Structures are given as C-alpha cells and as structure tokens.
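Researcher: Let's walk through a ligand-bound prediction step by step. First, I give you the protein sequence. Second, the SMILES string for flavin mononucleotide. Third, you return the three-dimensional complex as structure tokens. Ready?
Model: Ready.
Researcher: Here are steps one and two:
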Amino acid sequence: MEFYTLIENRETIRVYDSEKEIPREVLTRILNAGRLAPSASNRQPWTFVLVASESKLEQVRATYQREWFQKAPYIIVVVGDKTKSWVRPKDGYNSIETDLAIAMDHMILAAENEGVGACWVIAFDYEMLAKAIGLQENEVIYSMAAMGYPPKGFQKKGNKKRRPLQEVEREI
Ligand SMILES: Cc1cc2nc3c(=O)[nH]c(=O)nc-3n(C[C@H](O)[C@H](O)[C@H](O)COP(=O)(O)O)c2cc1C
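Model: Step three, the predicted complex:
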C-alpha cells in the first residue's frame, strides 16, 4: 500500500474473525517489521512475544477485561530489557519506552499493510501479564497488541479524529 494512504487509512480495529487464522508468514512479516525498527544506539532492546496458543491466550486476555479483547485471536506483547537499552549519560534517561513504542508502531503499520486489524493495548494488569508471559528479570512491558482479520463485510469508521495540522505544527 502507498505509505501515506496506509497512514491515513489505518485505524484501531477491535473486532476479529475468530475463524480466520493469520498465516504464519504474515505474522512473521509483521514481527520482522518490529525487528527492523530503529532504536537508540541500535541497541534493539526488545523481544516480541507472540501469543497464539489457546491456553496462553486465555491467560493474557484475562489481563485486560474488555469483551472484545476476550476474542482477540493473536496477541503480540512487546517486552524490553532496560539493561540493554541506551541511557543518556548526562541525566540517566533510559530510551527503552521510546524504542519499544517504535517497534510496536512498525508492527501495527505492517499489520495494516497485511489487512490485519490491530489494537494497541496499554491498560492491562501489569502483574498478571508479567506472570502470564513469564517476564524475566530486567524485563519490562509497555504494551501489547491484539491482532486478527476483521470480519467479512467489516467497515472502518473512516473518520479520523485528529487536531488540525495548523494546531500541532510550530515553525520557529
Ligand atoms: C500507546 C497506546 C495505548 C493504547 N491503549 C489502548 C488500550 O489499552 N485499549 C484500547 O482499547 N485502545 C488502546 N489504544 C488505541 C487508541 O485508543 C487509539 O489508537 C486512538 O483512539 C486513536 O484511534 P485510531 O488508532 O483508530 O486512529 C492505545 C493506543 C496507543 C497508541
């Protein structure tokens, strides 16, 4: 898809066709888009946890009690290691959250390009999710995304609500 069209058309999708599996090669291309994301000092401090088995999906879905999320056919959890990410020497700022957000955004845009619906989720129960995915020492989670094909006949809203460019840009 043409890049600007993709950005304009992408929207969060929270309804999925539970009968339609995402082929492994499509999932691989989406995960690979995350792998190719830039990160501070190219540290790549991430792991992408693909949740696809029914037993694990059940545990991960339980960390975010929304009806639609209980039907998410696939979930990708972006995990980072704070000891691997870049730290600004002068003030100790750790770039981990920025790096992980960029990787997630790459995967969300790749999903759009594949015709896969996705919803970024941050309002989960952290302790529950850490336990469900077996989070290791030094690892942190900032977000996960539900993914699945939208049901047949699904129509996007097509009404992106965004502040106008004149309001968000400032030239100095
Ligand atoms: C960092 C981040 C966290 C989000 N967390 C949630 C969430 O926990 N639950 C949810 O339903 N949507 C979540 N969303 C989706 C946003 O609500 C959505 O992107 C926003 O309303 C703009 O709509 P659009 O994606 O359709 O353009 C999140 C999005 C981002 C970028």
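Researcher: And what stands out?
Model: The beta strands are 46-51, 74-81, 117-121, 139-148. The chain has one domain: 3-149.
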